[in-house]
Predict the structure.
Amino acid sequence: MKNLDAFYRLTGLSRQSLILADLFADQPDRGQLFCIKSPYLMLDFSKQRVTSDILNHLEKLAQQAELPYWREQLFTGAVVNPSENRAALHTALRAPANQQSADLACVEEQLQRMDRLVTRIQSGVWRGYSGKRITDVVNLGVGGSDLGPLMVTHALREHAEPQARALRVHFASTIDGSQLFDLLEHLSPETTLFIISSKSFTTIDTLSNANTVRSWLSSHCNDEQRVLRCHFIGVSATTEKMDAWGLPPENQLAFWQWVGGRFSLWSTIGLPIALALGMSVFRQLLSGAHAMDEHFRHAPMLQNLPVMLALLGVWNVNFLDIRAHAILPYDGRLKYFPSYLEQLEMESNGKSVDRAGQPIDHATCPVLWGEIGANAQHAFYQLLHQGTQPVASDFILAARRYDNARHYAHYAELQAQHQLNIANCLAQSRVLALGNAAVEPTDNPFRHYPGNQPSSTLLLDSLEPQSLGALIAAYEHKVFTQAVIWGINPFDQWGVELGKQVALQLQPLLISSLEESEVLLDSSTLQLARYIQEQQS
Ligand code: F6P
């Protein structure tokens, strides 16, 4: 990004010269020109405010940032996370076993251990403390140890294998215990298994939930070793901490420090996915991601889907100054996809120092948020269409839906709903791009749609394990590519540490005399703490 100014001069463009309605009028085959096909996905980016010339300059920017070099560093296990001195080998988690290097044999070994555990639980060999089979599984985890498995499990529920359907899989992440409170009221301690998912096994959110559950189980069964053996599985990169918590070694699954938390759903962190959907569905997810890895590694830059997503993002943020990015899946099954991407993109690229820790002088990750598109139409699209904020959007849509439901009595009605959904998706990106020009101009200021809000549409042939794997991997590589161009490290997250430290400092103060506290609190925090104490007394 050092040459950003030169880049602006080279393009010789002003923001005002990029009007989507004009670009479409001037270039009738724009849709076909600005489109990339990759395994399982198609990206139409013709509604982005770019020209072929701009794309060529963006490609040069990626070359100047040495994207091909960094990409090889990523895939070959070099230290691409210098502040933590770690590789980031999530791509190795989904490489076929026969292509794995000998030092990564541990990946397949852990997958096979996971497979055996899944089989024992789903087949009823694994029993609760009183001898009953497990009916419910609760994943206790937060961030990367929650969002990926939650999102995938929800998205692919229709693809669950028969033996997986009998298990109900739940997720509890919140530190306040709200989700657990709801769950524990309805679940039976005899038939519920808990997965403690935590890369570090120190995250207080997860451990406080785990401790509450442990006490709940102990109040029903006083044989603690039995409770630990029959009701907990730990998944972590820190085996010693699982040992210290009391988890028997046979109830532990491992992964490694070189797997970033938000890139970890492909590892044993995916256990809830395998339990809810079946191990072969999990393997298909991995194979779809691997197909995208190969595409990212080998496709030329301007035909490379993740690279293009990244270049468009850089263009929007750094040239068009668009600092908001909406993720709009037109598919109820992708309900949790926006939250998943919020962590993936903002925790990775919400940085303001370069790899060496030097301040940078350009913008990085935009604010990213989203919602199921058709629902968001009735919530925040008003701002997209007529607000004062430029926003770039990703529309995500599956072309085919209800393939497996042809026998269903209301198949025709559901198909009609799917068509309605598609029409809405296409209509929204069209209106955002063209404004009133999509239909007819008007003098009515309340009905004026300026358009020119850029968007991309990601079309999946259909939402299946492989295509979802490819979609997620495409965004992972987008994030990596942007980090390379911005010169930052996407694999650390130092920005979340100070808040944890201050919370630890505040926790004891809340139950002590604030007046005698040695910690000098600001007047706002002090006032809030006092008020809370008064309410609680
Ligand atoms: O606090 C942020 C974070 O470290 C995320 O990066 C991570 O996904 C999440 O917390 C959970 O961490 P762990 O898996 O170690 O419990």
User: Anything to note?
Assistant: The CA atoms of residues 372 and 378 lie 10 Å apart. The pocket of 6-O-phosphono-beta-D-fructofuranose is lined by residues 142-145, 198-200, 203, 206, 261-262, 347, 493, 496 (CB under 6 Å).
